Amino acid sequence: MRALSSSVCIVGVDESDEIGTLPGKSQLTLHLEAVHNAVRDAGLRISDIDGVFTAGQHSPATIAEALGVIPRYVDGTTVGGCSFIIMVGHAMLALHHGLCDVAVISHGESGRSGVGVSPRRDTALPGQFEAPYGFGGAPTYFGLVTTRHMHEHGTTLEQWAQVAVSTRAWAALNPKAKHRDPITVRDVLASRPVVWPFNVLNICLVTDAGGAVVLTRAERARDCAKKPVYVRGAGEGAEHVMLTQMRDLTFSEATRVSGQKAFAMAGVGPADFDHVMLYDAFTSGPPIMLESLGFCARGEGVHLFEEGRSTPGGRLPINTNGGGLSYTHSGMYGIFPIIESVRQLRGECGPRQVPGARLSLVNGMGGMLSAAGTLVLTNET
Amino acid sequence: MDPPRPLPTPITPEARPYWDGAREGRLMIPRCDACGKAFMYPRVLCPHCGAREITWIRASGRGRLFSFEIAHQILNRAFKVKTPVVLAMVELEEGPRLLTNLVEVEPDPARLRCDMPVEVVFERLTDEITLPMFRPA
Lengths: 381, 137
Description:
The structure holds 2 protein chains of 2 kinds.
Chain A (H helix, E strand, L loop, with lengths): L7 E8 L11 H16 L8 E4 L5 H8 L5 E3 L7 H14 L5 E9 L13 H6 L9 H15 L3 H15 L13 H6 L2 E4 L1 E2 L8 E10 H4 L7 E10 L14 H14 L8 E4 L6 H9 L29 H5 L7 H12 L12 E8 L4 E8 L3
Parallel strand pairs in A: 2-3, 2-4, 9-10
Antiparallel strand pairs in A: 1-7, 1-8, 4-7, 5-6, 8-11, 10-11
Chain B lengths: L15 H8 L4 E5 L21 E5 L3 E10 L13 E8 L4 E6 L14 E8 L5 E7 L1
Antiparallel strand pairs in B: 1-2, 3-4, 3-6, 4-5, 6-7
């Protein structure tokens, strides 16, 4: 496993030309814009791509076809929004063994406008055991996780709200973020109730967006346009899909497994990171991820979001793009924290740049903490 | 009159004893013959030990409110019960957890507490379908 560590690099990242509300753009257009922009960022050509990775509504064959390439390697692992994070590990393995030379991981989703969106999944279990009771839509599941955490650990609505406040402080510094006006804990608590314990400001945005990440082996990466970002560790895990099957409602086994694997491959631990990106579909998600990853004891994740810790200028900056809560969230958000992590490690982030960032964590969930992907990224060899 | 909720769809063959039981006012759950543990949702092998020999048993109907939330809006238009409603996860005495609604309570987080005892009640939706729900015990 250690032989894989830092053997490949992320050399190109970008979003689609625009992100936000884009009823005039198909999901395929969001993919193609993002791939085009990320390949350009790498100083490569689309014809260099021979590994195609995507998740969700499209198969990698669709993306390869639209790009006009014939890949030697394809992967369509779809385990929720973290799939793109998991694919960095899969691409690393394929590149390391020479099964492909230039891999692209692509995401395009019309989450807000719904252009061409169709659900294609087996509804037998949720249709029988969840829908009759009003369950459906992520907040109706994640709320149960959140209430139980409050019961077991005494976490308060004010503490969850602080996650939204911290994330918005970063969004204010990101011109691409959808919501940039600062908010307070009181604003979160006074926002529209959706599913208690969540008000609308506890819940991620719903947008249209694409994003792509380009990888190649380290020796080739040195000839690309930008400073290479090394994949020092990668992990993945999956525990459940139906929330009733989650072993411990306030601790993610998938995240624990994924984090341990990534940290072991990288030879690092939680104390080593100077930048952190966490999939924030709900304000309670990032604290529970930090607890499951071993950054803190159970019940203490919210303390890492207190003023002056995770916020601009803080000791452990978290979700510096403004997150799914304030920057963008197309539905399967996982590509975007990778993009931000790479930009931070290159020093491209302007007013929101974390000074001297050198070791960055990306951790995402699929579903309701159902699956997980973890990356340890660095700009040092 | 149309039922006020989406009917469970599709009824899968392996879950048939659950729905047949509910129609007759019994909460039926599968239990593994090999390891003796009950489980939900119904499936053809035991998630605890992998054995294929399974017997249906009648659950006591007692359990605890494992977690809950108060929904102020429901996305599914077929769900016509007036909001706010209490969406809940109940842990049965026998071990398995179910998603359900907590009824016969005020939908007020100050009046609800995780781990409070609950018991099953049945709401008939059609001649075929009766839905298990829970109320404070």
